[in-house]
Design goal:
326 residues, seven-stranded mixed β-sheet, Arc Repressor Mutant, subunit A, 3 domains, 34% helix, binds biotin, alpha+beta, elongated, BirA Bifunctional Protein, domain 2, 27% strand
Amino acid sequence: MLPKLLRRMKKYMNSENVKQQILEFLWQAKDTPVSGVKLSSLLNISRVAIWKHIQALKESGIDIQSGPKGYTLSNPDDLLMPFCFKKEYKEKIFHFQQLESTMDEARRLAKADASHLSVVIAEHQTLGRGRLNRKWFSSKGGLWFTLILKPGPLPPPLAYIYNFAASLSLSTSLKELFNADVSVKWPNDLLLNGKKLSGLLSEMETRGDMVEFINIGIGINVNNCPEKDEPRAISLKTALGKEVSRKLILEHFLDTFERQTRNIDCSQIINQWKKQTSTIGTHVRIETLGEMHEGLAVDVEDSGALIIETGNGETRKIIYGDCFHR
Ligand code: BTN
C-alpha cells in the first residue's frame, strides 16, 4: 500500500516539476513560439505528454497560446512564478493559482520555517479578506499577496511601523515606475484619483513578549476591473489606460521595502509617509468597530496615531479605524 502511495506522490511531484519546466522554457523564449517537438526533446518526454501538460496548465488559468509554430505565453512579463524573480527572491516566492486567502497560507508558512521577506501570491482568492472583517474582491489580474516578516527581536507595540513602511514603499514604487499620482490614506490605503487602488491588512503572532512574525497582506488593483464590485475603487489599468506588469511592481516594491526597513527608524518613516499622504489637511470620518469620529486631520504622530480636530475645537487622537475622506 505504502509503495503504491509513494509512487503516486512521486508521479504527481514529477508532473508538477515538468509543468514548471515547460513554463520556464516558454517564459525564457518570451514572444518566440516553442514547438512541442522542441519541448519534448528538452524534457525527454513524448509530444503527447507535452500536450497534456500544456492543457493542464491552461486549465489551471495560465494563458498559453497554441499556434502553428508552437506555444507562447500570452503575457510573459506579468508571470509571477519564482523563476521570474531575481536570485535573492526566487526561494522566497510561493505562488498559487488559487487560495481562499493568502493570509492563511502565509500564517501556515510563517509558523513553519518561511524566512523574512517571503511572499505568498495567489492569482485569485475565493475568500479574500479586508480590514474590519470586510470581504476583499480578488479577481484575476490583481496583485494579491502576503509578505511574511520575521524582523528579529521586536516588541509588539513597534510592529505598526512595518505597515507604514509597506504603504510608503508601495506608493514610492508606483510613483517611480508609472509616475502615478498615488497618495497614502491613513492608516495604510493607497489612493489614485481619489479612489482606492490598494489596501493593506496585517496580522501578527507573538511569542513571549516579542513578535514572532508580522504578515502584511497587500491587495493592489492592477489589471483587474474592481469598479464592477466596488465603485470607489480603481485599478492601474483603468488609470493608465494599459495593462502593466505585476511582477515589475512586486519586485520593485520588495527592493524598496527591504531598503526602507534595513535599519528601521520610526520617525523617519512617518515623516516620509506624511510627505505622501492626502489625509492630513482633509476632513475625515473615521469608523472604528463601535464609534465614529469626524474632523479635520491635522497630523500623524510618530506612533502612527492620527490627530483630528473636531468642529468644537477639540483634538482627538485615533489609533485605529477605517478612514473616509470627505
Ligand atoms: C483593506 O483595505 O481592507 C485591506 C485589504 C487587504 C487585501 C489583501 S489581498 C492579499 C491579502 N489576502 C487577503 O485575504 N487580504 C489581503
